[in-house]
């Protein structure tokens, strides 16, 4: 069961990704985790990525693609995986197709959590994050169970990202919409795209996600 999860910032993609990996026991493969692991393990691609990051430069697609290939070739992906944060461009989408072909794997479904942009502006303006583990909360919709304490790690240090502030959110969403549209169209053409209404309670959204996965 090989999945890609997509969604605009604030759509609840991260929350649904956590539920998927908890329910199905497949590895959650995010861009950030892949880079950190590759650099920590000093793989060939990890060292190359580090050489760019240390200079403050963008990591080229061919290096990112190489790190993805390294990760997808690891034994824990044998029963499936959830890709999160990759592909981000249509070039990366095409590269992923080649990577999977070389590994004799294929994508079974692309789950897109859809929420209208104007709703996301309100959502993102209220979002805050645990500095210790990265768990995401909202001052109205998803508060920690104990005020001031992270549910996941017990930390007490929270912050709001600069790009979650209202003055920058609209531009950020516009950039993401432009970038993601060709990818969504690509997977729509392949009959792999499953779009879910994310403007509902978390449990209701996950019920739809689970229905899609269980039908694979």
UniProtKB/TrEMBL annotation:
A molecular-function term among this protein's GO annotations: zinc ion binding
Binding positions for AMP per the UniProt entry: 31, 36, 57-59, 85-88, 92, 161, 172
Residues that bind Zn(2+): 130, 133, 150, 153
Sequence ranges assigned to domain Adenylate kinase active site lid in this UniProt record: 127-163
GO process annotations (BP): AMP salvage
Subcellular localization, as worded in the UniProt entry: Cytoplasm
CDD domains per the UniProt record, alphabetical: ADK (cd01428)
Keywords: ATP-binding, Cytoplasm, Kinase, Metal-binding, Nucleotide biosynthesis, Nucleotide-binding, Transferase, Zinc
Catalytic activity: AMP + ATP = 2 ADP
Coiled-coil intervals: none
Record-listed ATP binding positions: 10-15, 127, 136-137, 200
Function in brief: Catalyzes the reversible transfer of the terminal phosphate group between ATP and AMP. Plays an important role in cellular energy homeostasis and in adenine nucleotide metabolism.
NCBIfam families in the cross-refs: adk, PRK00279.1-2, PRK00279.1-3
Entry's free-text remark on domains: Consists of three domains, a large central CORE domain and two small peripheral domains, NMPbind and LID, which undergo movements during catalysis. The LID domain closes over the site of phosphoryl transfer upon ATP binding. Assembling and dissambling the active center during each catalytic cycle provides an effective means to prevent ATP hydrolysis. Some bacteria have evolved a zinc-coordinating structure that stabilizes the LID domain.
Family according to the record: Belongs to the adenylate kinase family.
Subunit comment: Monomer.
Protein name (database record): Adenylate kinase
Organism name: Vagococcus coleopterorum
Gene that encodes the chain: adk
């Amino acid at each position: 069961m090989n999945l890609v999860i997509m969604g605009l910032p604030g759509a609840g993609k991260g929350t649904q990704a956590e539920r998927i990996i908890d329910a199905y026991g497949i590895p959650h493969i995010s861009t950030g985790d892949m880079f950190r692991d590759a650099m920590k393990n000093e793989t060939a691609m990890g060292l190359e990525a580090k050489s760019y990051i240390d200079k403050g430069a963008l990591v080229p697609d061919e290096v990112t693609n190489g790190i993805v290939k390294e990760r997808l070739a690891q034994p824990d992906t044998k029963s499936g995986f959830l890709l999160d944060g990759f592909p981000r461009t249509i070039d990366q989408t095409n590269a992923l197709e080649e990577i999977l072909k070389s590994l004799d794997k294929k994508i079974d479904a692309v789950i897109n959590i859809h929420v209208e942009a104007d709703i996301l502006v309100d959502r993102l303006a209220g979002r805050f994050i645990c500095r210790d583990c990265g768990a995401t909360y909202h001052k109205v919709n998803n508060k920690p169970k104990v005020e001031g304490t992270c549910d996941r790690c017990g930390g007490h240090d929270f912050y709001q990202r600069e790009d979650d502030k209202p003055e920058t959110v609209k531009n950020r969403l516009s950039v993401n919409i432009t970038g993601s549209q060709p990818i969504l169209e690509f997977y729509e053409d392949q009959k792999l795209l499953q779009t879910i209404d994310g403007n509902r309670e978390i449990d209701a959204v996950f019920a739809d996600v689970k229905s899609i996965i269980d039908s694979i």
